[in-house]
Amino acid sequence: MISQTIRRSRIVEVPEVHIVEKFIPKVSVQNRLRKVPKLEVHWVEKVVEVPHVKVVDKIVEVPQVREVQRFVPRVEIQEVVKHVPKYHIQKIEKFVEVPQIQVVEKFVEVPQIHEVVKYQEKLEVVDVPVQRLRYVPKPQLQLVEKLRAVPGPLEVLELQQQIPKPENKLQVLERIVPEPQVQEYVVETPVAVPSPPVEVPVEVPVFVDIPLLYPVEGKTIPLPKQKVYEQVVEVPV
Questions:
Q1: What is the pTM of this model?
Q2: At the top level of its lineage, which domain of life is listed (predicted)?
Q3: For residues 193 and 96, what is the distance between their CA atoms, to the nearest angstrom?
Q4: Do 62 and 225 form a contact (C-beta atoms < 8 A)?
């Protein structure tokens, strides 16, 4: 039996040494003189003003409110009972006789006119001056103030009303008076009927006292004043 050999390539890492040069600088120490100013502290006394709290009493007037009693009359309304009779209206049937018109024939003599010549005296009218006193009503003017926005000044004008005077003239006229005739007519006489009284309200003025304050001069009322004092207390810290 023949054995066959198969070759395969295989990569194998083989370590290699490489030389790397590294340059290291050589440190050389040199002394260099450098002058630095030296600070010297000197203590110097200095006076410094330190604020100090000083308590001073201050008097402050504090106003106080004081009640002053003032007696003002109080209005009390007192009712006075007044008995007034009250009327009740009650309807009662009442028979009233109503007049009826009854026609009755009546014979009346009718006068006839006859012409009769009658002589009458003729009167002539003569104007005779007669002095008469006649009272004429005088109009009364009443000025009423009325406020209106008028740019100019106001003028009050008095207007008088003229009343025409009627002229009285005497005139005589002839009048023929006929003979009186008797006529019948019905006269209605009114009779007063009592009616129930009616209550009429009457306004009665009521007086109410209203207190009024008037300033009084020359009167001073002393008021107590409260004073506050401050006290300093040391508190340990």
A1: 0.14
A2: Eukaryota
A3: 14
A4: yes
Would you give the distance in Å from CA 20 to the centre of its chain? 115
- Token readout for 101 is 């018109």
DSSP annotation of 185? -
Phi, psi of 68 (to 5 degrees): -110, 115
Token couple for 192: 């007063």
What separation in angstroms does the CA of 31 have from each of 26, 35, 36, 37, 89?
A: 16, 13, 15, 19, 148
**180-219 pLDDT per residue, tens:** 666 666 666 666 666 666 676 777 676 667 766 666 565 6
- What lies within 8 Å, CB to CB, of 58 at 6+ separation is 230
Q: How many helices (DSSP H) and strands (DSSP E) are in the chain?
A: 0, 0
Nearest to 174 by CA among 119, 116, 111, 112: 119
Q: How far, CA to CA in Å, does 110 sit from each of 107, 179, 181, 182, 183?
A: 9, 12, 9, 11, 12
Token couple for 203: 């306004």
Q: Is the dihedral of CA 121, 127, 130, 135 positive or negative?
A: positive
Beta-carbon contacts of 1 under 8 Å, excluding residues fewer than 6 positions away, are none
What residues does each domain of the chain span?
Answer: 18-92+130-206
What are the angstrom distances between the C-alpha of 144 and each of 1, 139, 150, 151, 173? 167, 16, 16, 20, 51
